[in-house]
Amino acid sequence: MPKLAISVEQEQAAFEEEVKAIEKQWSERPHLKRPYTARTIAALRNTIPQSYASSVQGRKLWNQLNAHNAAGTCELTFGTTDPVVVSQMAKHQQSVYVSGALCGFSEVSFPGMDACDYPWDTVPKVVKKVFSSQLWHDQRQRQYRMRHPVSERAELENWDYLAPIVADGDMGFGNLTSTMKMAKEFVESGVAMIHLDDLAIGMKKFTVGQGRTVVPTSEYLDRLKAVRMQFDVMGVNSADTLLLCRCDIDHSEFISSVVDARDHEYVLGATRQVRPLKDVLADAQAVGEDLKVVRSAWKASAGLLTYDDAVKAQASEDQFKTYKLELSKANPSIASRREIASKVLSKDIFFDWELPRSYVGQYMFAPTVKTIIERAIAAAPLGDVTWARMDSPVWKDIVEFHTEVRKVFPDRLFAFGYTGDYDYGKAGFSESAIKTLHLDLAKLGVVWQVQPIWSLQGLNLLTEQFGKLFAEEGIAGYIRTVQTPALATKPMTDGFEKLSYCGGYLADAFFETVAGEEIVEKGSAPNTKRH
Ligand SMILES: C[C@](O)(C(=O)O)[C@H](CC(=O)O)C(=O)O
């Protein structure tokens, strides 16, 4: 193998230049705080500089979102995995969402509930498919326009087909190197922004009776750092791919470990000496008892509380105030909580967070809106946009979350998901409040809003309705309800007027080019070869 034809001095000079270029690029996005230096990243890069469409799309989305922020408006988009749907979204949406839940239903060999159990490269592959289709539409539109004289072009369609794609990176699918590989694949697929959350791998659960588990704050931050590092390593401008820090802590029931003191305030412990829950459940299972009933009874018998509530239950009002005051000056760990409480109350508080651990080892967790705020604030410097995914749209919590984060980061941009099973009525929204919800969210800085699973609810409904009609009325029903309105819609739903929606003119252009025909307009005279 030949050696690289470069002297040590040249190598060092090129390296120093790259370090400077990286530093300059980073200075353009001062909201990002990296735990590593430009030198470290430069050394991790390839010797061939590479650039990615993902970076162009990331910058485009960044500009769109900041323009919304300045105007107090928002982008409203929805989830799909289908290039045909994406082609129409270009007319009304600025961005496209590729949802993990949808990919898990329609892009895998074995569909299933949104438990993030599909292969790690499923969503990047769908993004690649969608982005390639956007490029194809962009190409056919450009070719079509260029074969028309300038004088006619103003009348021709000119959509921005390259709507930036936002995609679901779930929790990164494994250890840090898996997360990096996923981020790499996303950048290569043309994504503009990915979101990464703080759920424990393999523990994303939405079904009844199975609590969700989050990872410690430190593990979540490491995931985000791994993605940021991968973006930075990938080469020229690739740092412009955006990272959306999603936080799934709302209503999570467990945390996988208590290694990070920042989480200790919210961990539940038994305040009475009881048998460990997992032993009680194992015994109950052996004799066929109803585990849900046994679990509830155990919880009641254990006096489950957070450490601070356990202190509160035994302290006078003044003692508790002193405890909180001392705590605000100390490290938030359970050890320092115990030390302060025993000083203030002159006794030890019985609190054992080992007893409620599940049979796979998670700790019981009782997060509040404050917990989500703290995590989002810790994560913000590593990403560009923040999303607190909540189980239900509780307006009071939504306002509190966004307002508190903005107190620390006044220009923070937020995302919001109109999650599939939200019951707005139950959450207290009147009809008029729902009508202005997107605008009210925009005022809080929520500039990117998504209905993530439209394809599931929307396409299911349309398909069911059309299937029934077609079975009952045959082609007459199709002509009346599909073909006639589709052809009458302006702009047409299938591309250019008088032309095939499959872009037949683009295929013709390839044949004509190979045949050496001039098919691009030079001036204003019409091209006789125009189709
Ligand atoms: C956004 C989401 O992660 C998705 O996969 O689309 C889901 C969507 C949903 O449940 O409606 C989510 O966790 O919100």
From TrEMBL:
- Requisite cofactors: Mg(2+)
Q: Which SUPFAM superfamilies match?
A: Phosphoenolpyruvate/pyruvate domain
**Reactions that this protein is recorded to catalyse:** (2S,3R)-3-hydroxybutane-1,2,3-tricarboxylate = pyruvate + succinate
Positions binding Mg(2+) in this chain are D168
Superkingdom as given in the UniProt entry: Eukaryota
GO terms (molecular function) for this protein are: isocitrate lyase activity; metal ion binding; methylisocitrate lyase activity
Cofactor: bound how, per the entry note?
Answer: Can also use Mn(2+) ion.
- GO BP, sorted A to Z: carboxylic acid metabolic process
Q: Which Gene3D superfamilies match?
A: 1.10.10.850, Phosphoenolpyruvate-binding domains
Q: Which InterPro entries match?
A: Isocitrate_lyase, Pyrv/PenolPyrv_kinase-like_dom, Pyrv_kinase-like_dom_sf
One Pfam family it belongs to? ICL
Sorted alphabetically, the keyword list is: Lyase, Magnesium, Metal-binding, Pyruvate
The entry describes its oligomerization and partners as: Homotetramer.
> What family classification does the UniProt entry report for this protein?
Belongs to the isocitrate lyase/PEP mutase superfamily. Isocitrate lyase family.
**NCBIfam families per UniProt:** isocit_lyase
Q: What is this protein called?
A: Isocitrate lyase
